[in-house]
Design goal:
- The chain is built from twelve helices and 14 strands.
- By secondary structure, the protein is of the alpha/beta class.
- It has two domains: 1-108 and 264-360, Isopropylmalate Dehydrogenase, CATH 3.40.718.10; 123-260, Isopropylmalate Dehydrogenase (3-Layer(aba) Sandwich).
- A ten-stranded mixed β-sheet has the order 2-1-3-12-11-4-5-10-8-9, with helices on both faces. A two-stranded antiparallel ribbon has the order 6-7. A two-stranded parallel ribbon has the order 13-14.
- α10 packs antiparallel against α11 (316-331) and α11 packs across α12.
- It is globular.
- The protein binds nicotinamide-adenine-dinucleotide.
- Nicotinamide-adenine-dinucleotide binds next to α4.
């Protein structure tokens, strides 16, 4: 298989961690007989410095021509003189939103996995953590209350404000399909989150999800109210496989899910649209405080590359090989500074990459 991957390394630790993922993908290519071609493109502060804008049109065009996109992180430190006085639409974060909409990415996938070797970093009770956490939040990304009609006005009781949660059948159908397809590659269970006891939009959500489920008889579907989900995530997270949510519920629950697993340097994410082309990135930022010191943990970005293999290229075995290599390195006691604990062996970011590559 030959694939062309656009790389938006970005700022701060972005180049270090994307280099880690590239090394891993090259090893996967060598071992499994694939060819991955990488094209480095500008986005973020580095793009602003060279072109005056955070996301040049050339970068968008090349991403659209690629098979998939790997993103490091964008943004500078607080008070960075290169960006401090820029208007909102020229700031690095504006580039991030623009690339997501330019690629039509309506679904956001955030796996939350507790690595057995890092169980100590889990803030949950030991007997709960021991059962394991391995779930993916599938969040609808460009609909719902964040994009619905909003406004302010005045009435008898004074000034009022409102936002609208609105979903149509096609929006729910397309995100539900992503969740069911993903469940087929995992443990065949979808938990669909709503507030159908109160909200009309949730009742439609539930109806549509059940309609989609008919095409996936091999996948178990469970409906769960969002308030109960918030509780179950800390009480019994091992019950979840794929968690399907609207935009706002996913925003909140995915942070909760990430937090129960420990370090920020470990968590990957992907955003997908109607095509197989996705955007894969760690959930953390550009960490300017440690940039250039070889301290950055490359694992979140390496696991994002594994998601690309599985979700964009259907290379399940290859994705597993990467994930197993990461597990092995952690089991052997190697740690970057952010996940270091007593008795473990501390390594630099580049050494961590090397160790993972050697184990694929
Ligand atoms: P951050 O995630 O960059 O860093 C938070 C803390 O976690 C820092 O102490 C950092 O050193 C540490 N950290 C983050 N990633 C790490 C890794 N891989 N290994 C080891 N330690 C790691 O968040 P922040 O400091 O709030 O933001 C810094 C910049 O990143 C800002 O400009 C922000 O706007 C930007 N940002 C970008 C994205 C993105 O590109 N998707 C996301 C979040 C923040």
């Amino acid at each position: 298989m030959k694939k062309h991957i656009a790389v938006l390394a970005g700022d701060g630790i972005g180049p270090e961690i994307t280099n880690g993922a590239i090394a891993v993908l090259n090893k996967v290519g060598e071992k499994f007989g694939h060819e991955f071609e990488f094209e480095q493109l500008l986005m973020g502060v580095c793009a602003i410095e060279k072109t005056g804008e955070p996301l040049p049109q050339y970068t968008i065009d090349r991403c659209l021509a690629s098979d998939s996109v790997l993103l490091g992180a964008v943004g500078g430190a607080v008070g960075d003189p290169r960006i401090e006085k820029l208007p909102g639409h020229l700031r690095p974060e504006a580039g991030l939103l623009k690339i997501r909409s330019a690629l039509g990415l309506y679904s956001n996938l955030r796996p939350a996995k507790l690595f057995p070797a890092l169980a100590g970093a889990c803030p949950l009770r030991k007997d709960i953590a021991e059962k394991g956490i391995d779930l993916v939040v599938v969040r609808e990304l460009i609909g719902g209350i964040y994009f619905g009609k909003r406004g302010r006005g005045t009435e008898e009781g004074g000034e009022y404000a409102y936002d609208t949660e609105k979903y149509n059948v096609s929006e729910v159908t397309r995100i539900a399909k992503i969740a069911f397809e993903l469940a087929r590659k995992r443990r065949h269970r979808v938990t669909s989150i709503d507030k159908a006891n109160v909200l009309e939009s949730s009742r439609l959500w539930r109806e549509v999800v059940h309609t989609v489920a008919k095409d996936y008889p091999d996948v178990e579907l469970i409906d769960m109210l969002v308030d109960n989900t918030a509780m179950q995530l800390v009480k019994n997270p091992s019950q979840f496989d794929v968690v399907l949510t609207s935009n706002i519920f996913g925003d909140i629950l995915s942070d909760e899910a990430a937090q129960i697993t420990g370090s920020i340097g470990m968590l990957a994410s992907s955003s997908l649209g109607a095509t197989k082309r996705g955007l894969y990135e760690p959930i953390h930022g550009s960490a300017p405080d440690i940039a250039g010191k070889d301290l950055a943990n490359p694992i979140a970005t390496i696991l994002s590359a594994a998601m690309m293999l599985r979700d964009s290229f259907d290379l399940t075995e290859e994705a597993k090989a990467v994930e197993e290599a990461v597990n092995k390195v952690l089991d052997e006691g190697y740690r970057t500074a952010d996940i270091m604990s007593e008795g473990m062996k501390q390594v630099k970011g580049s050494e961590m990459t090397k160790l993972i590559v050697e184990r694929i």
